[in-house]
Amino acid sequence: MVRRALIVLLLLAGAAGAETGELPALFDVRGVAADDVLNIRAQPRASAEILGTLAPEAEGVEVVDAADGWGQVNAGERAGWVAMRFLVRQTGQEGLPEALACQGTEPFWILRTGAAPAFVTPEREIAVDAPEILRSRNRTDRYGVLAETAAGPLRAIVARETCGDGMSDRAFGFGIDMIFGGKVYSGCCSIGD
């Protein structure tokens, strides 16, 4: 009896993981009435405090983590949870997304890899050539990023992992360690520019 229950639980866990796929990823809100909203809650349960809402037609919602049928999303400077039954994963999201917005603090910096790649600090902005993305040969959650700039080469390792920026209560699904200009920068990334 216990063995059968364990097998059922393992099958259900596998089905839930297949539903969300690799995270973080972008999802669209579906199944919410036009005159309603999808609540973002402080904890992954229906009775938790409401932190914000998503419109019934919201698209491109980044889900950074999942637990028990709930997906972790950001609402302003805070992370919260939405019911995954109202989200549909966008297609074509294998590997590392082309457009990432990475950031770090002390010193403050931003790396954009999408339509207008650039490395930005409060003092300057440096254009970055289209980066080459390399998938790790032995880890499915690690990627190398190689790019050239007028100020020299930029090299980074991006990992699918829970990451916090230390300045907000936002959640990030990618961590980054980068070498640029003879310095090491560490931070977090989200999908998009």
From TrEMBL:
Keywords: Signal. Residues 1-18 form the signal peptide. InterPro entries: SH3-like_bac-type (IPR003646). The keyword Iron-sulfur does not apply. Pfam families: SH3_3. Residues 36-87 form the SH3b domain. The keyword Chloroplast does not apply. This is Bacterial SH3 domain protein. It comes from Jannaschia seosinensis.
